[in-house]
Amino acid sequence: MKSKLSLITLASILCSQLCLAQTNEPVNDWKPAPSNQQGKQYPQVNSEGRVKFRIMAPKAQTVSVSFRDSSPFTKGEDGAWVGYTRPLDEGFHYYTINIDGAEVPDPNSQFFYGSSRWGSAVEVPAKDADFYALKNVPHGQLREVNYFSQSGNTNRHAFIYTPPGYDRNPRKRYPVLYLQHGAGEDETGWGRQGYAGLIMDNLIAEGKAKPFIIAMEYGGNPFAGGPRPTNAAPAAAGATNNAVAGPGGRAFNFTAFEKALLEDFIPYVDANFRTYADQPHRAMAGLSMGGMQTRGITLAHLDTFSHIGVFSGGSIATTNITDMVAFKKKVKLVFVGYGSRELGANRSGGRGFGGDPKDNTAALKASGINAVFYESADTAHEWQSWRRSLYQFAPLLFKD
Amino acid sequence: MKSKLSLITLASILCSQLCLAQTNEPVNDWKPAPSNQQGKQYPQVNSEGRVKFRIMAPKAQTVSVSFRDSSPFTKGEDGAWVGYTRPLDEGFHYYTINIDGAEVPDPNSQFFYGSSRWGSAVEVPAKDADFYALKNVPHGQLREVNYFSQSGNTNRHAFIYTPPGYDRNPRKRYPVLYLQHGAGEDETGWGRQGYAGLIMDNLIAEGKAKPFIIAMEYGGNPFAGGPRPTNAAPAAAGATNNAVAGPGGRAFNFTAFEKALLEDFIPYVDANFRTYADQPHRAMAGLSMGGMQTRGITLAHLDTFSHIGVFSGGSIATTNITDMVAFKKKVKLVFVGYGSRELGANRSGGRGFGGDPKDNTAALKASGINAVFYESADTAHEWQSWRRSLYQFAPLLFKD
Prior knowledge:
The structure is a homodimer of 400-residue chains.
Chain A: H1 2-23, E1 31-32, E2 44-45, E3 51-56, E4 63-65, E5 74-75, E6 80-84, E7 91-95, E8 97-99, E9 102-104, E10 111-114, E11 117-124, E12 141-149, E13 154-162, E14 176-180, H2 196-205, E15 213-216, E16 240-241, H3 255-272, E17 282-287, H4 289-300, E18 307-311, H5 324-330, E19 333-339, H6 340-343, H7 357-366, E20 371-376, H8 383-393
Parallel strand pairs in A: 13-16, 14-15, 14-17, 17-18, 18-19, 19-20
Antiparallel strand pairs in A: 1-2, 2-3, 3-6, 4-8, 5-6, 7-11, 8-9, 10-11, 12-13, 13-15
C-alpha cells in the first residue's frame, strides 16, 4: 500500500513537471509569501516554487522583476501589473522590481540587507522549514549592541544571541560562536533572514545542541563604498561608524576586520557577556566571504579558535596547514558546507575559493582531523544552504 | 565684537530667508541625509531643511514624491529624475516615491515601519540632535524577544531596552517604562527611528535620568488588516503572531492590547528581567494612539502604573479622574507632550483626543498633581516631537 501511494505521488509529480514544461501554465495554488509585509497578498508562491508579483503602476509602460526567465508582466484594467517567475529553489531570494527603468524594492515585501542594499526578498517555503520555525519553546534573545573601538576610533554595531536561560543563572558561562555574513550583507543577516536565533532555540529545546552565545559583527563589504550611516547627529569627533569596509574596491582584504575582531570585538564580548574566554570555547564560522574570513583568520590564530565552520566559502586543504601536529591538537572541528547546486556535476564548487571542498575535507579527515562535509540538497549560493549549514554545524560544537 | 557678529549672522539669516521666499531657489549646501543607505548620495538635505531626491528611472514619464508642495521632478540626460521639497521641519519624515503611478519606497533610503508599511523616510538633521547622537558612552542593549502568550494562543514579539550596566550586578533591580508606538507603527519604532536607547544612554551618562528598563510591545494597528508575517514555517498549530491588530477597521478598540499587556507582557517582563515588579516602579507612556492607550489603560489600572506619559495623544482632564484622592496618592507624574505645530494658534491641539492638553494639564497641576506640560518647538505630529518628549519625560521618572 505504501509503495503504491509513493508510486502515485511520484507519477503525479512527474506528470505535473512535464505538463508544466509543455504548457508553462503555473499551478493555481498561490499563497502569500511569508516574507510579505503585514496584510499584503502579494507576492504569492505556488507549490512549484514560482513567485507571482502584483505591482500597482497604472501609468507604467513596462514592469519586470530581477529573477531571470520570469514571465512578461501584464497590466490589468485596475492598473496592476502581474507576472511570475520560473520555479525557484526553496528558501530565500533577494530581488528588485523594475518600473520603467527604475530598480526599486517591491513595496509589498519586508526588507533585508543583501546585494549591498536594503531591499526586497521572497521566501519560498521549504519542506524542512520546521527547523527555523517560531515555536512555543524557550527563546534566546537577539541583542543589538553599540560599542566604541579605541583601536579603530570607531563606533561599532553588532548583534549578540544569548541562549534561553542566559539570565537565569548569573554564574553560568557559555562558549561563543563568531558568525559572519557574506559580501554585500551585514551583521543583520544571520539574525534576520538567517534565523540563527530560532535555529538555536529549536536545537536547544530538542537537546540537540549545547547552549552557546553567537556574536555577529560587520565584516566589511568590498562592494559598498562610502561611510555607513549612523543616526542623525555626528558621532564622537573624528569617529567613523563600523568603518571596516574601507574605501571599497574588490580587494577582499580582511586585515581591518581581522584587527577589529581580535582587538575589539572578542574583548568586548568577553568583557560584557558571561563567556568562557578561552580557545576551547571559541568557534568561528561564516558564509561565502565570511567563510573565507573564517578560514584565513582561524588558520592564523589557532590559539584563539578551536572550531571552524566554512559555509559556501571554500574549504581547508591539508596544504593550507603549516603545522599538522599543532593543528590536530588545537582544532576540534572543521565543518565545510555547500549547496548542492554550487557543487555542480563536476564538483567544481567553491567558486575558486581554493580547490574541491569535498575532496579537501575528505583529505583532512584522512589526516585524522575531525572534518565534516555537508551538502545542502537542491540549494545554491543562498540562505537556505546557510541556515541548513548552521543547523548541521551547531550540534557539533563544544561537545566536551 | 560679539554682538556685531550676531547682527551680521542675523542679517544674513534674514536675507537668505527673504531671498529664498522671492526666488524659490534652494540654498546650494546639500548633504546626504543621515537616513540614507550606506554609500548613497541621495536624498540630500540643505540648510533650509529642503530634501532633494534623485531617482534613476530612464523610461519613466513622471516621478514625484509624497511631500506636498514639492518641486516638479525633471529628468536629466543620465535618466535620473531630480526634485526637491519645501523646507521641512527638523526631524524624521516618512515618504514614498511615485514612478508612473506606482507608489514605491525610495531605494536610497533605509527602511522604517510607519504609515502601516515598511518604507522610506528622511532625517532632516535637527539642531538639538546631540541628545540622541551615538556617543562614546556606556550603552544599553536593545533586546529582541519572542514569547508565547498562553491567554492569546499567540507568539508575541517585543523589544526590551536594558540600561548600561544591567549585566554587571545580577542582584540589582530596575523600574520599567512600558513605551508604545503610534497607529500605523509597531514595536520597532521607538528603538529605531525613536532612538529611545541612545536617548537613555546619553541621559544616564550625564546623570540626568535613573537607569530603567524600557519595554516595547506591539499595540495593534487599526489601519492594517491581515495577519502579521512571521518566519517561513507555520508557528505552533493554531497560533497567530502578535494578533492584536484584529480584523482591522478604525475602531481604536484597545481591549485586546490591554489584555495582552496586563496578562502577558508585564508578567513576561517581570519574570524574565530584573524588575521591581510593583506599581511605584512601573510607568507607561506612548505617542499618538499609544498615548490614548496609555491614558485609557493607566486610568483603569492605577494600582499597576504610577507614572504616566502622553505624547501627542491627548491629555488627562480632571473630569477623567473618578477618585481624585486615590489618583493623587497613586500617581506620581502625569506628563503631556505636544509638538508646537500640533497645538496651533488657537491651541486646539489634541486632534480631538479630549480637550485642550495645555489647559487640562494646568488644571491637573492646580489640583495638586505632579503634572508637566511640554511643548516641542517647531515640530508637528512626528518623531522629533516624541524623541524630545521622551528626553523630557525620562528624567522625571522614578525619582524616589
